[in-house]
Amino acid sequence: MIIKVPEYIENLKAYVPGKAIEEIKKDFGLSEIHKLASNENPLGPSPKAVEAMLKSTDSLNRYPDVGALDLRNKLSQKFKIDINNIVVGSGSEGIMATILRSFLCENDELITSDSTFIGFQVLARGRANKTHFVEMSRADYKFNLNGILAKINANTKIIYLCNPNNPTGTIFTKAEFNDFIKQVPESVIVIMDEAYFEYAQGHQEYPDSMLYKYENIITLRTFSKIYGIAGIRIGYGFAHKDIISILMKVKLPFEPNNLAQAGALAALDDDEFLIKSIELNEKGYDYFTTELEVLQKQGKLKWFPSFANFILLDLEKQERVDFINSSLLKEGVIIRPLIAFGLPHCLRVTIGLEEENQTFIKALKKII
Ligand SMILES: Cc1ncc(COP(=O)(O)O)c(C=O)c1O
After folding, report:
1. In the prediction, which pLDDT does 24 show?
2. What is the 3-state secondary structure (H, E, C) of 12-72?
3. Would you state the pLDDT for residue 322?
4. Which pLDDT score is estimated for 15?
5. Cα of 218 to ligand 1 centre, how many Å?
6. Considering Cα of 292, then 297, then 303, then 309, what sign does the dihedral take?
7. 250 C-alpha to ligand 1 centroid (Å)
8. Amino acid 9: pLDDT
């Protein structure tokens, strides 16, 4: 191409999503597929959200409410926080993109982990700024907060943390975060990606970042996981009002779209669906971990305690992951090999419906 592209864009690897159901059906001539690859809600979308979105289609000729006032008011009531501390966007990933666009100056640097949410990795690599990817220990697959502190320098502008972390499912605890945040300069933004907050919040040691009154923390959450509306792209964030006012200026004026705003508003009232989703996940987690423990005792894999709706399996070698992945595909089960996340020897499996979990375990036992 004769059009000049910045070198960091030229070198950028596009986000590779989990495999699509239709693609696998076609490739392997299968009629039934179990997609346990993208940490989606296996129960489908929140029924209340669907109903509200269907009702809102009459106004699709109109542009969305720029301030998303109804939704931000609802979030304000639910989380007992002022509306001026709330931003909504096209997915929490959309808000992450707005944060990078808003705050990064020429020589600013970012810090995160080498084994965290790939969406952030792609956004960071898509900038001219330097990003430090701090190595995660292979012993516990937890964010190396001390390693991140050690990388802070005068140019550090943004630290991205993901808790629970995707793809490892692990958390850093209240005590670890308390110790960490005290040592971060106030001029550094700390993004706390809590996409899996609802799954983790019941755990005593899990730090809810909204309870920390630091002016440099941005909490990000989403409707994509527990509310099951990933396809409609809507997420939200909480931060100091000065940060929010910048984000509101920079975000695309009409994000999130009409359907997303209507769906999210209704989803926040769908406690029944939320509870059902959490209960299904807990049951699935107990089943998975009981079965995986047997395979671990036989020395066939290692699994790691998860605080979200997925589990990390360490298979030691990439060849084993490739073999298990391709064999599972033939059985109609899609999981996520983690080469793109920097963990080629690992795979991630999403907790699904009871029968999907059983199909996965049965197939895995056969293959492994
Ligand atoms: C940690 C994490 N953050 C953000 C996202 C994306 O969320 P959203 O759909 O709100 O953009 C995901 C989706 O997989 C995720 O795992």
Report:
1. 86
2. CCCCCCCCCHHHHHHHHCCCCCEECCCCCCCCCCCHHHHHHHHHHHHHCCCCCCCCCHHHH
3. 97
4. 78
5. 15
6. positive
7. 20
8. 93
User: Is-contact 237 14, C-beta < 8 A?
Assistant: no
Residues 6+ apart with CB under 8 A from 272: none
Ligand 1, atom 2, residue with closest C-alpha:
195
pLDDT of residue 143: 97
Q: Is 235 in the pocket of ligand 1 (CB under 6 A)?
A: yes
pTM above 0.90, yes or no: yes
- Measured in angstroms, how far is the CA atom of residue 123 from the centroid of ligand 1? 13
Token pair of 340, please? 């793109």
- CB of 337 sitting under 6 A from ligand 1: no
Nearest CA to ligand 1 atom 3: 195
Listed in order, strand segments (DSSP E) in the chain are 34-35, 86-89, 109-113, 130-134, 156-162, 189-193, 217-222, 235-238, 302-304, 310-314, 333-334, 336-337, 346-350
Residue identifier of the C-alpha nearest atom 8 of ligand 1: 91
Of 247, 246, 245, give the one whose Cα is nearest residue 235. 247
* CA 225 – ligand 1 centroid, Å: 8
Q: What is residue 215's predicted lDDT score, i.e. its pLDDT? A: 96
Q: How far apart are CA 222 and CA 230, in angstroms?
A: 8
Q: What DSSP character marks residue 135? A: P
Low-confidence ranges of the chain (pLDDT < 70): none
Q: How many CA atoms lie less than 13 Å away from 98 in the CB half-sphere?
A: 27
Atom of ligand 1 nearest to the CA of 233: 9
Indicate if ligand 1 lies below 6 Å from the C-beta of 230. Answer: yes
Which alpha helices (H) appear in 80-112, and where do they start and end? 91-103
| pLDDT number for residue 17 | 74
Q: Whose CA is nearest to atom 12 of ligand 1?
A: 195
Among 194, 199, 225, 251, name the best residue to mutate to test ligand 1's pocket (greatest count of ligand atoms within 8 A of Cβ): 225
